[in-house]
Amino acid sequence: MELFIFEGFTAGGNTAQASEDLAKHSLEIFGIGRGTETAAKNIKIERTENGKPYSDTVPWEFSVSHTGQLWICAVSERTVGIDIQEIRRIDHEKLADRFFTKAEKKYCRTAGKEGFFNIWTRKESIVKYMGTTLGKGISSIETVIDGTPADRLIIDGAVIHMTEIEIGADIKCAAAAEETGEICIKTLN
Fold first, then answer.
1. pLDDT of 107-140, one tens digit each?
2. What is the DSSP string of 155-172?
3. CB count in 10 Å sphere of residue 138
4. What are the residues facing 159 on neighbouring strands?
5. How many CA within 13 A on the CB side of residue 11?
6. pLDDT digits over 148-168, tens only?
7. How many whole angstroms separate alpha carbon 116 and alpha carbon 107?
8. Which of 22, 75, 123, 170 would bridge 62 by S-S if both were Cys, CB 3.0 to 4.6 A apart?
9. Which residue, among 129, 128, 125, has the nearest Cα to 149 in the 3D structure?
């Protein structure tokens, strides 16, 4: 998996178009790295009814997320989901009560706001991996096993590997993927 990061992403203007352009650029770089430049040309990005971006013009899977001025795109040859969040001031207990399982809520009470964002980014990355929405049963997916966030989950018979990715202070990032492996981080200019 390759993770493309762009610093300086702003909410001004057309963020959807800016995100799509960055995703196309990420897919192009991913393709060039695999010697398949032709597959990366004329990339067209579509969205599922739940909003998950995909492309029939390249043979790779990708997922995007942004927080503040950070934008990221995970690209893989297998199914992937990514989420990034700034650790910020929110009513994390109220959100945990709404979306988290009993074990996840207990973990958050112990780990506080940082623990909340550990679980939140995992759930969001799973949502993106599955191509669904938070409101469609995600609160029943258990991401904490034996009191700690799990590295491997089985959901609907599929094995999903969870990886926390270090991006920077006060930032949480998690990836959900079909397989484990090295994550190569690249910065976009």
1. 999 999 999 999 999 999 999 999 877 666 677 7
2. ETTEEEEEEE---STTEE
3. 18
4. 154
5. 3
6. 999 999 988 889 999 999 999
7. 8
8. 75
9. 125
